[in-house]
Structure formats: C-alpha cells, structure tokens
Write a structure and sequence with these properties.
There is one protein chain. This protein has a domain of about 160 residues: Aldehyde Oxidoreductase, domain 4. About 20% of the residues lie in helices and about 25% in strands. It contains twelve helices and 22 strands. Helix 9 crosses helix 10. The longest helix has 19 residues. The radius of gyration is 26 Å and the shape is globular.
C-alpha cells in the first residue's frame, strides 16, 4: 500500500475519543504504594533540617525519603548529550544542601493511599535559610549575585559565537544599521495528562518494570539503568497511552527516578501521579529568550549582514543541554533569505526558576525574530515589507544554497506573493482591514496585516514509516509487545505477578486530592 497522498487516520483515535484509553493514572498493581513530594516554597534557600517524625507516624505512611537516603541508591542526573563549550551540570535525585526554585524537591513521602501521602507532606518539618534569588537573566551574570549552582561561575552555563563571513565589515559598509529586540516570556506545555509513572522492582530478580508517560521509552530505559546502577537488560519501560507531551515528557525527571528508587528500597510497586499545580510549577518551562538583532541594510532594502545575540534563561537546573535550543534558534534565523555575512552569539544563564527545555521545538521564535527584523527594516527605510522580503529572498539563480537549517533545494522567491492583496499598505494596518474589522468586531481590538515566511526542517534519523498503529511502546531487549490495554491480559515482566498492573480506573484516585 502506498501512503503517499493517502489520508491516514490514527488507529487509536476512536478508542481515545470514546474514553477507552489507558493511562498511567489508570494502572494499579498488587501491593502498590503511592508517592508524593514535599516541595520548596522558596526560590533559593539552604536546607537546614528536615524533620520527618510527625509525617512518619501518620496512618498508612511507609517511608519518608530524603536526598541523603536516595543518594545511596541513585546516581545524580546529568545532562546528555553534551555539546561543546557547555559546562557540566548534575542534579541530585533530591537536594541535600539547598533548593533552587519554588517547587524544588525536598522529600518523598511513600504510603498506602494517595490522600495519606499528600496529607503527610504537610507535616514534614523543613527549616530553611532563605538566600537572595536570581530572577532576571539580563543581570544573572553580574558580579556579587549569588550562584544558582556553585559549580557554574557567574551563572553562565554556556557562551559561544558562530559566524559566517565578515559581519563587522558588512555592518560597517551598510547604509543603515537597524536594531530590533525580541523578548519572549516563559511558557509551559500544560498537557492534558500531567507526568506520571508506576515502578515495580522485583526483589530476587533485581529487575525493574516501569510504566511511564513518556515520549521516548528507549532512552528512558538507558537513563534509568544508568542512574540506578543496573544493566539495561534489567529495565523494562512500558508507555501506555500518553495524554500529550510536546517536549515536556522527554527527560527523566527526579520525581520519576525517586519513584523507581523507592520501589527498589521497599520491594513494592510505587506510583506517582503529578497534580496540575505541580505540573505548572515544576515540569519543564520553555522559551524564555531575549534576542537582540542588528541588521545592516542598503537603502533599497537589501540586507548585507546580520548580528544576532541570544540570551536564554534555562532556570535552576539543566535537564537538556542549555545551549541546544538556542543554537537551533540561531541556525534558523536566516530562514529563506539570502545572507552571506551572519553571526549569532549565545549566552545561556541559570536563574532561580523552574528548569527549561524544548516546547514543540523553537521554530516559532525563529519566525518571529526573522520576520520581525524584516518588518523593522521596512519601517526604518519606509519600504513595503513584502517588497523587502522579495528583495532578500533566495531565488532560483542562488541555488544550490545551504541555509542555517540545512535546506538546499527550495526556491523561496517562487512562493512569495507576486502581488499584494487588496488593502495592503506599508503601514501596520490599512483602512480596508480596519473598516472590515470594525464592522465585525469591537473597535478596542487592534487589527493589522503581516507577511511571514518560514523554512522548516522535518524528519529525523530513526523515524519509522509507515507509522505504528498503537501508542503503546515498550523498551526492552526482546521484541515482544505488551498486550493492548483493551485486552483482559496486561503487560508484565516475565516471571513476575507484581509487575502487572490492572487496567482499571483506580478507586483510590477518586479520593486523591489536588487532581
């Protein structure tokens, strides 16, 4: 069968829209315990003391684990893969000395019911010594400010410059240098299903089965094995239906590592399901970038050189290489335009905020920076913004031409409009557009017209085609797939009855608070 030109309907779509999906929060296992986490109310503070006595004495509480407890059975989380120039960083499974952002982990409470462990978290007595917090990425590198990570001087995790051609000479020879700034505030992913996992350690077998709402089960298996100090062949990761990820469910988080370690320490299955509040304050944030652009231009609108400076706020820890996403932004800014002299400089800083990472890739800010710069040039020279685009777009005669994204064979000028739509003008709005908008909507809303282009790089090594028919994936040395969640049988590790959670709605989940 040829998939080219054919409409493909996801085979799991009907099951999901009918509410028959099976997610980590729907899974239970015999003898299963629940995990909840004590979190910091401070952006930056020393941990002086953790008193778990009152919490430990509550009904149903099995254990209260601290950073020192988990340090004995887990290795610190480290970013991977490394990128040249990036300073190495690592995270303990739970902090032992200080917290670095509001929502940072302090202790893990394990118990029989979810409501019991959440209530017990409020009884864990933590003494803090608050420290000054670093919150502004533009001032994070100033001398005298506290260090978010004592191993990272000046809170600067990375600084690098990439250049092609002679940008200084190009700007010097330009008729005018146009400056523009783009400041994008923090965003977060808000998947319908927050993070969650169910870990089942098999004493005697010394194996781990890990049901996990993740986007990458195979790398997750490798990360779990490395952090727990066991062979990959001893770890099985099973991904049921996933209620959204968007990049947030790529890394191995400390909560998930702590849940796996707790199952190993206690010899019983342990499940952790994130609340919406936890998702907003402690799951990956994204896209807090400040981009300053200087474009050298001729009087006819020809861009002769561009200098870009990218400052990215990566938060308190690095689940991802802190310069990876910023490098993609720098590479993609040239877009579909003819640009021989180009330079971009990246600085990634740490602040006392939730860690950051990818969110549906960084291409949106790339388009904003590229097209916003073109519009700034058009305004500065009093030119038609569409004409400026056509003036600088790659033409057939320029090919082959390798852009920052690696695209080589397209001719963007062929896709640019050959004529302006009626009502287009050099101003941000037109009388025709405003008149139409006023007839339909409130006049308090601003209306305008904008042109934009984008070069997108799709596909990656290892992608499969045709697509698989199920969202359920397993990472294991064998090729045997787990049974469908709709079947009576359930996926489990061979030789283990405890590892097989029942595929039903958990009765205790209705009693859980904060969901």
């Amino acid at each position: 069968m040829s998939y080219v030109g054919a409409a493909l309907s996801p085979r799991e779509a009907k099951k999901l829209v009918l509410g028959r999906g099976s997610y980590v929060g729907d899974l239970t296992a015999p003898g299963m315990l629940h995990a909840a986490f004590v979190r910091s109310p401070h952006a930056h503070a020393r941990i002086l003391r953790i008193g778990a006595g009152a919490a430990s004495r509550q009904p149903g509480i099995v254990a209260v684990l601290t950073g020192q407890d988990l340090a004995r059975v887990t290795a610190p989380l480290r970013i991977a893969p490394p990128i040249e120039g990036l300073l190495p960083m690592e995270m303990p499974t739970l902090p032992t000395d200080k917290v670095r952002f509001i929502g940072d982990l302090v202790a893990c409470v394990i118990g029989e019911q979810r409501y019991q462990v959440e209530d017990a978290c409020a009884l864990v007595d933590v003494a803090y010594a608050p420290l000054p917090a670093v919150v502004d990425p533009e001032h994070a590198q100033e001398s005298g400010l506290p260090l978010v990570d004592e191993t990272i001087p000046a809170n600067r995790a990375y600084q690098g410059v990439f250049a092609h051609g002679d940008v200084a000479a190009a700007l010097g020879a330009a008729d005018q240098v146009v400056a523009a700034r783009f400041h994008q505030g923090r965003q977060t992913h808000v998947p319908l299903e927050p993070r969650g996992c169910l870990a089942s350690w098999q004493p005697g077998e010394e194996t781990l089965t890990f049901w996990h709402s993740t986007q990458i089960p195979h790398p997750m298996r490798s990360a779990l094995a490395a952090r727990l100090g066991i062979a990959e062949s001893a770890v099985r990761v099973i991904t049921p239906d996933v209620g959204g990820g968007f990049g947030q469910k790529i890394p191995l988080y400390r909560e998930e590592l702590a849940t796996a370690a707790a199952s190993r320490l206690l010899g019983r299955p342990v499940r952790w399901i994130e609340t919406r509040r936890e998702n907003l304050i402690s799951s990956l944030h994204a896209r807090e970038d400040i981009v300053d652009v200087r474009a050298g231009v001729k009087s006819d609108g020809t861009i002769v050189g561009v200098d870009v400076r990218i400052l990215t706020d990566f938060g308190a820890y690095a689940y991802f290489p802190a310069n990876y996403m910023a490098r993609v932004v720098g590479m993609m800014v040239p877009g579909a335009y003819r640009l021989r002299d180009y330079r971009y400089a990246i600085t990634a800083v740490l602040t006392n905020k939730c860690p950051a990472g990818p969110y549906r890739a960084p291409m949106l800010i790339c388009s904003w920076v590229t097209e916003g710069t073109i519009d700034a040039v058009a305004r500065a020279l009093d030119l038609d913004p569409v004409a400026v685009r056509r003036q600088n777009m790659l033409a057939e005669s320029d090919l082959p031409y390798t852009t920052g994204s690696g695209a080589r064979t397209c001719s963007p000028s062929q896709t640019c409009p050959t004529r302006r739509q009626p009502g287009w003008s050099t101003g941000p709005c037109t009388r025709e557009i405003l008149s139409s908008a006023r007839s339909r909507r409130s006049t308090t809303k601003k209306r305008g017209a904008r042109a934009t282009t984008r070069v997108r790089r799709d596909g990656s090594p290892g992608s499969a085609w045709p697509p698989t028919s199920s969202r359920t994936r397993t990472a294991r040395s064998s090729t045997r797939r787990p049974a469908s969640p709709d079947r009576a049988t359930t996926p489990r590790s061979s030789g283990s009855s405890r590892a097989a959670p029942s595929q039903r709605k958990s009765a205790s989940s209705a009693r859980a608070r904060g969901t």
